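Pinned message: reference record for SPC3
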Amino acid sequence: MGLLFALWMGTLFQFCHAAIYTNDWAIRIKGDLQSVNRIAEKYGFTNMGQIGDLKSYYSFRHHETGTRSTVSNREVTARVTKETKVEWLQQQVVQRRAKRISKSEPKIELIYSLFPKAKFDVPLFVPQRCSDESKHCQSPMNIAAAWRRGYTGKGVVVSVLDDGIEREHPDLKSNYDPLASYDVNGQDQDPSPNYSNNADNYHGTQCAGMVAATANNSHCTVGVSFYAQIGGIRMLDGDVTDIVEAQSLSFRSQYIDIYVASWGPEDDGVTLEGPGPLTRLALENGIKTGRYGRGSIFVWASGNGGRRGDHCSCDGYSSSIYTVSISSTTRRGSQPDYLEQCTSSLATAYAGGETEDMVKITYVDLITSKNISGTSLSASMAAGVIALTLDANPLLTWRDMQHIIVRTSKAHHLIAPDWQVNGAGYKVSHLYGFGLLDAESMVKEAERWKQVPSQHECVVESPIQLTIHPGSTLTSVYETTGCSSKPLQHVVYVEHVVVRLTITHSRRGDLSVALTSPSGTMSQLLGNRPLDNSTEGFHNWEFMTTHCWGEQAAGEWTLKIQDTPSQKRDNTELGMLKKLSLVIYGTAQQPYPAHRERVRSAEWPTDGDLTEEYNGPCDPECSDDGCEGPSPQHCVTCLHFFLKFKNNTRMCVSECPKGFWGDRRRCKRCYSSCESCTGSRSDQCTSCQPGYHLTEGTNTCTAICGDNYYLDHDANMCRKCSENCLKCTSYSICTECKQDTSLQGNRCQRSCAAGLYHDEQEGACKPCHKACATCAGAGVEACNHCAEGYLMEEWRCVSSCSAGFYATEPNPEIADGHRICRRCDASCLTCVGPSRGNCSSCSSGHSLHEGVCVVNTVCADGQPTLYYLYCKLAR
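Predicted structure (tokens):
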């Protein structure tokens, strides 16, 4: 009953926020296939088949309902609901889903391997440039080292859920697996991209190439797991609905090991969306029953909304406990500007660019002939590394894989201002999760891995309603024993923590939410979103953190909700925390030996004087040369690094503390304004002391950002403004321009006379298109204002309105008094005005009645009626 209630609630939520309804229904029917087909035929549906591997769930298509409409067909829904065998149904709504690719990033650079045992006759697609002996080698993902151990992804099946893949592509052909492929958009077996209406449908092919492009293919790539079987689900090149997503994520779940999803809700800093009821069910079933009970592995790109102040916690896909959410970094360990902050990101992979000694190669019609970067690339690399790990141990469960990732990921050179060591000794960051994936460490861990104990779920409910005051922080403390009185729910060691909140608020973007564990680990579950003006608040929204992994569940959990008004608003309507649930997932038994804390304090020890001879155990930071006592200052030589004090004594540490850097095992002091660094000079900082900001490009710390820079508060960095900006508030928003340029919108451009635009490549003013009075660039789509005799139609100037649009009357307050073309109501084929009653013609299956397009239908007794009369009655 709980599941059915959740499905019904999900349906109501979708209806309340509906944009475009389709003529597809998802339906759960209790009965055999004959009963299903009987119900479909009775109500004029076509049974399109079971939805993926979801038993008893079917996709029905109603041909008498318009394929796209702004109005739901409540009559059909109400009639079918009366069937006793129908347990649940939902008319489908089109969802906006975006590929997580950053077009402003540099093209992926292909590189030749320096590993003598990994002999390929092609440059590597993976960023595995430096050898362990290289002087400036910085934290490779150790992919080639995993290859040298004999792991190539052989026998592992990966499917890319995207806009299709080119199955005949020379990089993919020999690894292509038709059993892991399907065209959900076209309902056939061929997942090849459709280039006829969108030339950009190469994204899925590129992601597939990163995972499993074949070795020695005489072209330009090799995939991370170059012997894995690769398939593709074409599902983004059409209307994406809950059915489409669920069918894709549950397709042949006993055959496919890894699903790669490099897409999600719009990364616009406004959207708050997660999986629909069917998709959520597909994810739950996948981890419970997929791979014959070991659990499907869902790899998700964390998000590319950093430039818009977005936060991954507002994406219910990448913040699900069932997905492996992957973040991005550059080769130099810096933060890409599109990166979002997350408490749900598990680990990080490279996103291309920013490396030396690379060979740039471009081939026409090959995977590398198109630009790809962003978290799409990182998620694909991560899927390849996970395939190598399954090659080492195919019996790993979905939770085993997450544990291995947490235990083996490396912070290394990744630059972030918020690295912290949690109560279990793991370094973790809101930008990078537990660090950079390490393929060799993962396969080594997999070789000896023992399955983790069963997952328990401890829920702490809070019935108290609390007021959130503007400009202040609401602090609430929740104490738990980890459900110690309930053996089947008892959690001692934490894995995932979910905070489920219902909050009412007049401006959602002004809220930030933080959770502190009993061990003191702070998770910023939500940051302020400057663009989010929604008044809807949060309704049972789930914020998830992995940052407490391995900690003790029992103790006080502290939730802080801060309201920071960013603009004028009605402060008389106070925010309200209406409902809260704290859900702790983990185990009752220790899953493996305790993780040693990685950073040791540099304080003086309190042990007594040394004895002349010592035969006891050495400190873990001592090397194999032994020790002369039990403490870290008694080591003969150090395993990792040492701090040297003024009295010529030294102390072994696992990592250099803040304000120091490692130089041939010795920790040396950074420049005074640096908190971390790669050398002692002022231009070798990687993070800054409080009160200072790291300057992008110079690696110096400064108290105030200079001209051509703006302060990125989240990263505590002075970042460069865009070209020609003298001052700015973000990369793309200029407030003051350099000489000989002027502010046009938010951009600084060379000044040109009316009717001309500045061509940046040639450095000259050129005439606008003849349809433009003024413009920002070449072509009719770049018009700012239309020339006399032309009308503006969705950001382009036309001589007359297209079908489905109508011309407005001149209005001096709009478009400088010129007429513009506006879209007709969705029910009209053509129209003379904006409303449903202004139609002049209708689409097939509809009739025009007094300016309104109505559905042609027949009553049960055979008498004709008008659908709009029903709508009026229903209202």
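Pinned by admin. Summary line: The first strand starts at residue 21 and ends at 29.
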